[in-house]
Amino acid sequence: NAGVMQNPRHLVRRRGQEARLRCSPMKGHSHVYWYRQLPEEGLKFMVYLQKENIIDESGMPKERFSAEFPKEGPSILRIQQVVRGDSAAYFCASSPGQIGATNEKLFFGSGTQLSVL
Amino acid sequence: EDQVTQSPEALRLQEGESSSLNCSYTVSGLRGLFWYRQDPGKGPEFLFTLYSAGEEKEKERLKATLTKKESFLHITAPKPEDSATYLCASQGGATNKLIFGTGTLLAVQP
Fold this sequence. Notes:
- The complex is a heterodimer.
- Chain A has strands spanning 5-7, 10-13, 19-24, 31-37, 43-50, 53-56, 65-68, 75-79, 88-95, 107-108, 112-116.
- Chain A is mainly beta.
- In chain A, strand 5 (43-50) and strand 6 form a beta hairpin.
- Chain A is globular.
- Chain A starts with a strand and ends with a strand.
- The mean pLDDT of chain A is 92.
- Chain B is globular and about 45 Å long.
- In chain B, the strands form 2 sheets. In chain B, strands 2, 4, 5, 9, 10 and 11 form a 6-stranded mixed sheet that branches. In chain B, strands 1-3-8-7-6 form a 5-stranded antiparallel sheet, with no helix packed on it.
- Helices cover 0% and strands 59% of the residues of chain B.
- By secondary structure, chain B is mainly beta.
- Chain B has no helices and 11 strands.
- The A-B interface holds A 4, 31, 33, 35, 40-45, 48, 55-56, 58-59, 91, 93, 98-100, 102-103, 105-111 and B 4, 31-32, 34, 36, 41-46, 49, 51, 87, 89, 91, 95-103.
């Protein structure tokens, strides 16, 4: 049973370009979360999605960032017109149900390291 | 605002030297307190979930405990392979997201 798969592992973009980060959750998981990790900082929540729905996007910057989790295919985190401050590790996590319910937890992917030149 | 604070930021131990990591949290209506381990270049790996004050969980050399304001991760007789960053996270209220602390970087020297 494959874990949470993220690709690419490393992504280099120049300022102004678009970045697309992909996440395939674990088999049977319908809840996806995106987190950002900056050097010397903790994991910061960005967005929580279920199939075809954005449930909580309270951590997403208001501009340039968007996320989707279509009925078929991986979840995509899209960053338009990247700036140097977007350089970070972006982690995707999935769960089969709502976390906080007994025994539910997040399973994380290995992340995508985005570098903006 | 929900908040998680971990201390110390970094900890260096000799192999076999037991110690504890601290996680202080302020959250409305705690639903779960999570511990994760993160190795360099990898995603966090789940260790424990604690749900109520007084609860304890153990796994090999690790034991997690929970009070109404803090959680501790006790490491007994650590080995070099226990070296990693240990992350604490809380989930509260009606939210489904985890709020993470900045972690404790543990280095265990042989």
